[in-house]
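Summary: Need help interpreting a holo structure output

Steps to reproduce:
1. Submit the protein chain below together with the SMILES for glutathione.
2. Request a joint structure prediction with the ligand placed.
3. Inspect the structure token block that comes back.

Expected: a single structure record containing both the chain and the bound molecule.
Actual: see attached output.

Input attached:
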Amino acid sequence: MSGLKLVIGNKNYSSWSLRPWLALRQAGATFAEEMIALRQPDTRTRILAFSAAGRVPVLIDGDVTVWESLAICEYVAELFPQAGLWPDERQARAICRSVATEMHAGFAPLRQALPMDYRASLPLPALDAAVADDIARIQAVWRMARERFGAGGPFLFGRFSVADAMYAPVVTRFNTYGVALDEVARAYCTAILALPAMREWLDAARTEPALPQ
Ligand SMILES: N[C@@H](CCC(=O)N[C@@H](CS)C(=O)NCC(=O)O)C(=O)O
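--- attached output ---
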């Protein structure tokens, strides 16, 4: 498939950009990238040239523009059905979609308290109850998926799925801030961080200039 372009933010900071980028890489897609530096005077204007929603990521496929990370992952799953980015079995697929959507729609306290800074190792700030609840809920979701559907591989639903793409930046946050995790979560994080695509993203993140907070 040629002609795909993914517009993303800085690899060190843009957690939403990582999700569809990883889905594309895991699907074996060939695609161009355009990086728009966040928190710059021209950031908004540059993003608006691609999407009136004013947010990255944005996927351009000819005359089709897809925005919102989860919608892009859905589109990638349809473009590359052989990649199996959703589980084959209907019940597993429904739960995988619930898990992916819960991430897309939720966990704002966690995202706010522990912003993505992939290349850094940072002290864990004092966490309020809402953040602690998010961390507990994420681990419960991961345990449920691994126990019920994870037999075929190291990912939430066995083989790599959109759910893994959606949680990959959570894995990097837990890693950056040294969040204490249960055994299942630790093993899952190890599997995600070992993906060649995750290492590729991290290597690129390491070369980017730091952004002002
Ligand atoms: N719900 C959106 C969230 C996208 C989002 O918030 N992206 C941030 C970067 S990670 C952004 O574009 N910010 C615009 C700006 O900083 O001007 C999605 O899932 O794609």
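--- end attachment ---

Reviewer comment: Residues 6 and 164 are 19 Å apart (CA to CA). The domain at 90-198 is CATH 1.20.1050.10 (Glutathione S-transferase Yfyf (Class Pi); Chain A, domain 2).
Status: needs-info
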